[in-house]
């Protein structure tokens, strides 16, 4: 009785809309064609819209989807109906009316239902086997994420065939997935590659997922799309410090279907800037190098080579001094990294010369 009541409820709802508001997605196939279903992101495999549904809904000639399953010997072909991608929120109802009708000779029948991940992996959620007629399946699923719903019908036996039929498909899964937002940190002047969490790469991509990248608001740098399906984006953060938003719009099935929307909010920190001053000393003396921070976040790690090997020191304030090796000609600044992990521009990493005062002469003075 409960199944019959559910069937009546969903049949009435489906008469009014194919995709309803508030997360409900439904299709009764009454006003659609094969081409329309494919435009609506369904996958039809040896199955399509039929104008006669008297078997599923006695007394009604409303359309449904129909596929011919047949086999000359043993295992037969599968007819498959696959929905668009839908968002499951952890408590999702799925219901559909289905049957095998007109089985001939020695036929075994089977119906499987699956959730299909974006990478093509299937999770079996329903199975009916044997010789069966009209069935109304009503399932509640706890998955959270992005899935297609797939119904697969098969026949096996000797000279076996049957009609696989589906009608009144409905689910509380939503056709529109919530936006996916993540955050990242970068440094002004660096180049970073981004891959949205949950996106599908080109090597694991049976549904032709593609990504179109853009800026939301002010661009923070130069954006370059990467890889065959543009899953990766490379950004040269060359505008300046601030917070910038990247957007990736997903499509699938050769760009015909809109998928999810990804956002990456990137905080760009300023690059360290600094000045170096070195005092002049007497010949063979030890010069003092002073590091002055002009931009960035303290403390700073300064790497340098004064001729006696690579050394580092930490500048915890905006001005720090260090004693250099005696008698050297110059000091090479190798790297400056601030507390945000940002590196100074390479143009500042140069050698600074050491200037010496000559020693006083002690030669005798001659008078002529």
Mean of residue pLDDT?
86
Which class do the helix and strand fractions yield?
mainly beta
Note the overall shape. Answer: rod-shaped
- Specify the CATH architecture of the largest domain: Sandwich
Q: Can you give me a brief rundown of this structure?
A:
The protein has 3 domains: 2-171, Jelly Rolls; 180-269, Immunoglobulin-like, CATH 2.60.40; 273-357, Immunoglobulin-like, CATH 2.60.40.
Note down, in words, how this protein is organized:
With 368 residues, the protein is mostly beta strands. It has 2 helices and 25 strands. The chain is rod-shaped.
List the keywords.
Immunoglobulin-like, Jelly Rolls, 368 residues, 9-stranded antiparallel sheet, mainly beta
Topology, pairings included?
Blueprint: H1 2-16, E1 25-27, H2 34-39, E2 43-45, E3 48-50, E4 64-82, E5 86-89, E6 92-116, E7 122-129, E8 135-141, E9 144-171, E10 180-187, E11 191-194, E12 210-216, E13 222-226, E14 232-236, E15 242-252, E16 257-269, E17 273-278, E18 281-282, E19 288-295, E20 300-305, E21 310-315, E22 319-323, E23 330-337, E24 351-353, E25 356-357
Parallel strand pairs: 10-16, 18-25
Antiparallel strand pairs: 1-9, 2-4, 3-4, 4-9, 5-9, 6-7, 6-8, 6-9, 11-14, 12-15, 13-14, 15-16, 17-19, 19-22, 20-21, 20-23, 23-24
